[in-house]
Specification:
heterodimer; A: mainly beta; 7-stranded mixed beta sheet; 4-stranded antiparallel beta sheet; 11 strands; B: mainly beta; 6-stranded mixed beta sheet; 5-stranded antiparallel beta sheet; 54% strand; globular
Chain lengths: 113, 112
């Protein structure tokens, strides 16, 4: 089954404790991205990757890092999480870019205390 | 700046009715638009897309209309079912062609 898998689905942690949210897709997609979803603000892009070893900032990249060492994986790293990063995070992928339907994971709900 | 908005935050319909969800966009140069459905606890799910060289596109029970003159997008759902209850988002591609700009969503409630 074609899917985008995120882990963990839920996480409660404390300020400053490094965490990684994993994202994996099994569709051989080149394009992957991360969004955060906040009430009243909708979905906003954090980072995106056009292909392996090619990543770039989206609209809200502060406090986040990503890597793309393999085509299927695109982890989101919070090196020193802060409470304002409490949010619902989605990973998405598509074949070659944004002008195609994006396949979204089911989300990761992060709470930073 | 770029923004994609929806006219109504909520829409309530009866089962079997046709639903129309509206969206206004601001970037007249946008060339790709897409509608997503998001159910509680899940990620956005693709419904239908349309490119700027088209005015209308039909899928299974859904139709998207694009009016570039007034920068308006709509999603029509025929014979709405309880399973259609969800939040619906429109989105457009940003000017750089690197991200989707999402509207804030319309919650569709279908009563039987």
């Amino acid at each position: 089954e074609a899917q985008v898998t995120q882990n963990p689905r839920y996480l409660i942690t404390v300020t400053g404790k490094k965490l990684t949210v994993t994202c994996s897709q099994n569709m051989n997609h080149e394009y992957m991205s991360w969004y955060r979803q906040d009430p009243g603000l909708g979905l906003r892009q954090i980072y995106y990757s056009m292909n392996v070893e090619v990543t770039d900032k989206g609209d809200v990249p502060e406090g986040y890092k990503v890597s793309r060492k393999e085509k299927r994986n695109f982890p989101l790293i919070l090196e020193s999480p802060s409470p304002n990063q409490t949010s619902l995070y989605f990973c998405a992928s598509s074949s070659t870019g944004v002008r195609q339907p994006q396949h979204f994971g089911d989300g990761t709900r992060l709470s930073i205390l | 700046g770029e923004s994609v908005g929806l006219h109504l935050p909520t829409l309530s319909v009866q089962e079997g009715d046709n639903s129309i969800i509206n969206c206004a966009y601001s970037n007249s140069a946008s060339d790709y638009f897409i509608w997503y459905k998001q159910e509680s606890g899940k990620g956005p799910q693709f419904i239908i897309d349309i490119r700027s060289n088209m005015d209308k596109r039909q899928g299974q029970r859904v139709t998207v209309l694009l009016n570039k003159t007034v920068k308006h997008l709509s999603l029509q759902i025929a014979a709405t079912q309880p399973g259609d209850s969800a939040v619906y988002f429109c989105a457009e591609v940003n000017q750089a062609g690197t991200a989707l700009i999402f509207g804030k969503g319309t919650t569709l409630s279908v009563s039987s």
